[in-house]
Design brief:
The protein is an alpha+beta fold. It has helices at 19-27, 71-77, 116-122, 149-156, 169-181; strands at residues 3-7, 13-18, 31-36, 41-43, 46-48, 51-56, 92-96, 111-115.
Amino acid sequence: MPEVLVLNSNYEPLNVCSLRRALSLMLLGKAEVLQGRDNPIFTANGTMEAPSVLKMRYMVKRPMPQLRLSRHAVLARDNHTCQYCGSRGKDLTIDHVIPRWCGGPHTWDNLVACCRKCNLKKGDKTPQQAHMKLARPPKRPHFVPYLSLPLYLKAQNRDDWQMFLPFFSEFAVEAHKTHRAA
């Protein structure tokens, strides 16, 4: 089912919802279409514009969301690429650069995406002990989480949504590469 980007009344991204949910927001008068799709929706009363981007008619108050550390967020930050050998794929794990037994914390600065082969090779050693090198040092993204990090990166690949999403330079190159590969 097609997805719809939902913006707050101040144009801040709120969520991505299903087309069904977007239509109910429109019919209840809670949201208006900012950008439609090429194909309309046919109803008993005629046709209506199928939304791609909606804006709420009123301000939805919510606390500033926090960027949560999760497996999906680390994989998204590292663009689903092993930080040791550069292989891409779905079969990735999360590796503690400095192992937990050595006092390595469970933080953004110590976690990287890692393929199973490299994870087995590194084992419970530091990269130096295993004679392995990181492609880039891990760090906490400077991302303001209007949407979750994986959802934001997925949304960046939608041409019709890009102008409504905030720009974060640390993800611009990766999103552009992903978009060109698709």
